[in-house]
Amino acid sequence: MHAHPGISGEEEYAHDLICRELGLLAPDGMERNVGGYGVVAYWSCGKSDAKTIAFRADIDALPTGHRCGHDGHTAIMIDVARRVSKRKSAGRLRYNVVLVFQPEEETGKGAKKIVESGILEKYGVAAIFGMHNLPGYERGTIVVSHDKFAAASCGVHYMLHGRTTHASTPEMGINPGLAISEIISGVDKLSDMRTGSFKLCTLICCRLGEEAFGTSAGDGEIMYTLRSFTDSGMKELMEQVDKCVIESSNRYGLELSKRVREPFRATVNDARLSEKVEQIFRESGREVELIRKPFRWSEDFAEYQQRIPGVFFGVGSGKEQQELHHPSYDFPDGIIECAADCFEMIMNNIEI
Q1: How far apart are CA 111 and CA 34, in angstroms?
Q2: Among 129, 245, 252, 331, which is most exposed with the fewest C-beta within 10 angstroms?
Q3: CATH topology for 12-146+268-349?
Q4: Taking the domains of the chain in order of start, what are their residue ranges?
Q5: What is the reported pTM?
């Protein structure tokens, strides 16, 4: 997979590879092309009253390649599939198990598509678990939260429409330049880095006019990524940014249009389940770190948690590792077994 990255919506290679590997493991059910290039496999424990748990891995890459480790996450879940199949053959499965290989995580679309496919209801999934590799932590350290694990985020794209005119008579047109300047200054003041009220506005792109020295610009656009540790905080921040942009646009007589891009909800763990997961990991003798402050990045695993109890945890990929999405980031294969162990420990010991 690392040599054949497929960006969000184009994960055909990963889809076919996963199907081939799972086909060797005799699942009781396997569904292809779920929510795009997603794959879902199901093993029954053979008990009529058994509950069903799900494990999820993301499979997509960035345009620069697998610079987030989703290729590693897929390899981990294929290892988990082999372990599930082995336990099934030995008659030692405690729960029915669903494995979700999810596309389009990077754009925030994949989990929603899986949820909307009805897979969770079809198999009666009672709880779901997922993980991400975490640079900056010692390899194999398990990172757990009993509350918020990762932030909500959303891209927002504002288009400001004025009127182009000759550069010698700028007063005859409507140039968005001053409005954009005001917006940048105003939105910058909305960021709040305190944990309890965390809000972050990151300027992503700004364009004004074109390279034509005989004209005064008539159109401009500005894009931000907004972040908050809560969904309610995200809603409030979006309203504040909208207000700032609308007021400046009105002040200069501009027409305004807006597009929302790649919205992610906050990833919030089920407290009861996450406490049990932490206990399972600690009793295994693993190094466990309980975090009190969420990560600023986002995860669409939150879409599952809107429907059913879920726990998202991290596995350290090395303090020396470059940060996620860095051009030099390379998933360390050495944590595959450790992460697969984590899922197997949950499968064998969790009480739903």
Answers
A1: 10
A2: 252
A3: Aminopeptidase (3.40.630)
A4: 12-146+268-349, 152-264
A5: 0.95
